[in-house]
Amino acid sequence: MNDMYMTKEQLAQSFKEDHLHVTEGVKICLRQAAIYTKRIKVVQSTEGTDSTYKQSCEGRAKYMYLAIETAEEEKEQHWRYIEDSDWFETQMHDKYGDLDFVTDVDDLKKLLKIYRLLDMADEQREQHSVEHMSRIGVE
Predict the structure, then answer these.
(1) Model's pTM, two decimal places?
(2) Residue 81 · residue 22 · CB < 8 Å
(3) What is the mean pLDDT of residues 2-18?
(4) What is d(CA 42, CA 73) in angstroms, rounded to the nearest whole number?
(5) DSSP secondary structure string for all residues of 77-130
(6) What is the per-residue pLDDT for 91?
(7) HSE on the CB side for 55, CA within 13 Å?
(8) Which helix (H) or strand (E) covers residue 74, if one does?
(9) Residue 59: CB atoms within 10 Å
(10) CA angle, 89 as apex, 85 and 91 as ends, to 5°?
(11) What is the full DSSP assignment across 28-72?
């Protein structure tokens, strides 16, 4: 694999050093990175194009860093996106009355992240290709 991107071991070390946890949201991001890792291996073994290889490496890196970002956000906010999503939605209902009336940008970003992670998990369960996921906006 390309040396410019983080390895699985470096990721584990980063999580350990920063006291981050592997939650469901993080696992979803890591599964997405694994999809790209499989694609990289296929491209390497089948004379794939350089652009496909580069796109796959970039996709893998994107989701590995998204996993770190997700873990850091969850640590900072003291709740997990997937496991505690019902609690957060209840908080939003208490604050705004209806999710349609959420006006705080930070609250909207958190809601968006929850829904993006849930959509990504659904697409992974259905085993859609990364091209399909990017067409429907999951990527």
Answers:
(1) 0.84
(2) no
(3) 85
(4) 33
(5) HTS-TTTTHHHHHHHHHHHHSSGGG---HHHHHHHHHHHHHHHHHHHHHTT--H
(6) 96
(7) 11
(8) helix 50-77
(9) 20
(10) 115
(11) HHHHHHHHHHHHHHHHHHTT--HHHHHHHHHHHHHHHHHHHHHHH
